[in-house]
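Lab notebook, design round three. We kept the backbone fixed and only want residue identities now. Task for the bench partner: fill in a sequence for the structure below.
Input C-alpha cells:
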C-alpha cells in the first residue's frame, strides 16, 4: 500500500479535485461537510460523550467539519467523468451520481444500487501535519503529478433557470430583452451550438450553454445520445451578436490600470468578463464549424464524440466564468455592459475558420495559454488590494483554464497522431501563419507544462509580422 501525500488541508478549499497520478490513473478527491452522526438514543452512553477522547476516535478522513473521500475518476459503467457527478445525501451517506447515466455510488464504499462497484480509496487527514494522505494499493512508487481543482458554481440570474422556455425574464443586459428559446429534444449538437452563437443576451447565452452541456452528458451512452449533426443548414453568424455592450476598437477600451483602485479592478473584471463571453462562442463554434472534420491521409477519421464532450465542457466552464465575473462586478457596484468592449478574440476565430489545427493552435495554445501567464499577476494585484472575493473568482478561472489548454493540446496531438505529423511543428507553423507578432515572455512554464506545453512549443516563436519583417 502506497501512502501518497496530496496537499496540506489549508490549501483545499473546493468541493472536488481531480488527482492525476504518475501511473496515469486519475482519481477524484471529494471534500464534503461532515454529516452529523445520527442522534444517540441513549445520551449517557460513551458515544454521546463530547470529551477530548472523542476527537481522537474521529474518522481518519475527517477534520474540522470536513470529510474527505477519494474514488476513481472514470465511472465503472462506461467511463463517465465522476468529477462532474451530482452529490446527494441518503441515509447519512454521500451518494454521487454519474453525469452520463446517473448510476449512483456511495462515495465511501463505492457501492451502487445497480450492483456495480466503483473503486474508492482511504484518505487520512490526521497525524500527518495537516496533510491529506491517500492510501493507494500499489507496490510501485506512485506520486501526484497534479491536483486539479474542479469548480462548479454557475451564478445564473435568479429566475432564469428552468423558467425560461419562451420567457425572456432574467436578462442582465441593459438593452432590449431577447426571448430565451430552447430547442426541441431532437435538435443536434450543431443546431444548439449555432443557436448559442446567435444568442445576443449574455444571460441567455450562459444558460443555454449550461443546458447544452447537461443535455449532452446526460444522454451520452444512453440509447438516445445527442446527434452531432453538421453545419449544413445551420446559420453561423460572421460576428456573434451582443446585447447591452458597446463594441469598440481595441484601443478605445479603458486601460485597466494597476488594480490599486476599485475603478481599476472593475475595468479588469469587465475586460475579463468580455473575454469569457467570447470564449463561450469560440468553444461552441469549434464544435459546429468542424463537426465533419476528417483527418488527412489514407485512413481519414472523423472526430470522436469525446472531442465534442471536451469542448462543450470548455464552453460550460466559460459560461460559469462569465457568471462569476458578472456577479463580482455587480457586488462592486458596476455591471457587465458598463464599459465598452472589443471583439479582438473573434478575429482570431475568423482567420482560422478553415482549419481545425490552426484554430486549436491560435485560440487554445496561444490565447488561452497566454492567460496562464498573466493570470497569476492579475490575481496578485487583487490580493494586494485586499479583494479576496475577486481573488477566489480568478483562482477558479485560472485552474479551469489550465484544463482548457490541456484540451487544446490533447486534440492537436490527436489529429497529428492520426496524420503522422509533429504537433510542435504544426503549432509553430500555424503561429507563423495566423498570429501577428511575437509570443511574449515571461511564460508561466509550470502552468503551461501542466497543460502539456513544454518549451519546444513556444520559445523563440514569432507570428507573421515579425517573420515578414525579418
Ligand atoms: S458512464 Fe457512468 S453511469 Fe454510465
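Proposed sequence:
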Amino acid at each position: 500500500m502506497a501512502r501518497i501525500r496530496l496537499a496540506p488541508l489549508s490549501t483545499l478549499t473546493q468541493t472536488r479535485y481531480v488527482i492525476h497520478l504518475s501511473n496515469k490513473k486519475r482519481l477524484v478527491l471529494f471534500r464534503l461537510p461532515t454529516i452529523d452522526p445520527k442522534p444517540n438514543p441513549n445520551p449517557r452512553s460513551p458515544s454521546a460523550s463530547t470529551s477530548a477522547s472523542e476527537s481522537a476516535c474521529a474518522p481518519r478522513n475527517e477534520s474540522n467539519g470536513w470529510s474527505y473521500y477519494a474514488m476513481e475518476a472514470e465511472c465503472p459503467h462506461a467511463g463517465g467523468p465522476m468529477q462532474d457527478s451530482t452529490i446527494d445525501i441518503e441515509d447519512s451517506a454521500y451518494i454521487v451520481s454519474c453525469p452520463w447515466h446517473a448510476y449512483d455510488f456511495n462515495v465511501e464504499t463505492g457501492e451502487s444500487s445497480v450492483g456495480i462497484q466503483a473503486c474508492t480509496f482511504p484518505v487520512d487527514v490526521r497525524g500527518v501535519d495537516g496533510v491529506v494522505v491517500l492510501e493507494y494499493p500499489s507496490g510501485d512508487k506512485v506520486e501526484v503529478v497534479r491536483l486539479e481543482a474542479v469548480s462548479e458554481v454557475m451564478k445564473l440570474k435568479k429566475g432564469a433557470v428552468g423558467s425560461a422556455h419562451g420567457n425572456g425574464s432574467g436578462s442582465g443586459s441593459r438593452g432590449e430583452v431577447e426571448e430565451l428559446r430552447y430547442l426541441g429534444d431532437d435538435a443536434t449538437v450543431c443546431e444548439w451550438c449555432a443557436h448559442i452563437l446567435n444568442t445576443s443576451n449574455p444571460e441567455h447565452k450562459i444558460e443555454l450553454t449550461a443546458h447544452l452541456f447537461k443535455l449532452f452528458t446526460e444522454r451520452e451512452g444512453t440509447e438516445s445520445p445527442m446527434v452531432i449533426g453538421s453545419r449544413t443548414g445551420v446559420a453561423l453568424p460572421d460576428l456573434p451578436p451582443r446585447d447591452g455592450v458597446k463594441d469598440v476598437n481595441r484601443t478605445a477600451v479603458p486601460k485597466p490600470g494597476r488594480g490599486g483602485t476599485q475603478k481599476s479592478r472593475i475595468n479588469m473584471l469587465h475586460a475579463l468578463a468580455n473575454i469569457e463571453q467570447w470564449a463561450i462562442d469560440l468553444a461552441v463554434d469549434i464544435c459546429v464549424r468542424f463537426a465533419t472534420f476528417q483527418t488527412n491521409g489514407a485512413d481519414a477519421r472523423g472526430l470522436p464524440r469525446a472531442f465534442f464532450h471536451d469542448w462543450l465542457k470548455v464552453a460550460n466552464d466559460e459560461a460559469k466564468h462569465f457568471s462569476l465575473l458578472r456577479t463580482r462586478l455587480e457586488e462592486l457596484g458596476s455591471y457587465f455592459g458598463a464599459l465598452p468592449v472589443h471583439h479582438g478574440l473573434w478575429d482570431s476565430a475568423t482567420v482560422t475558420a478553415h482549419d481545425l489545427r490552426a484554430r486549436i493552435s491560435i485560440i487554445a495554445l496561444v490565447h488561452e495559454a497566454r492567460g496562464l501567464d498573466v493570470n497569476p499577476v492579475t490575481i496578485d494585484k487583487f490580493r494586494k488590494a485586499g479583494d479576496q472575493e475577486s481573488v477566489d473568482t480568478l483562482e477558479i478561472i485560472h485552474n479551469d483554464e489550465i484544463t482548457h489548454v490541456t484540451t487544446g493540446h490533447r486534440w492537436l496531438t490527436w489529429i497529428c497522431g492520426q496524420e503522422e505529423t509533429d504537433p510542435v511543428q504544426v503549432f509553430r507553423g500555424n503561429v507563423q501563419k495566423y498570429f501577428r507578432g511575437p509570443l511574449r515572455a515571461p511564460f508561466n512554464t509550470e502552468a503551461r507544462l501542466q497543460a502539456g506545453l513544454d518549451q519546444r512549443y513556444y520559445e523563440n516563436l514569432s507570428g507573421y509580422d515579425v517573420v515578414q519583417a525579418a
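Keep this in mind before ordering anything: The radius of gyration is 24 Å.
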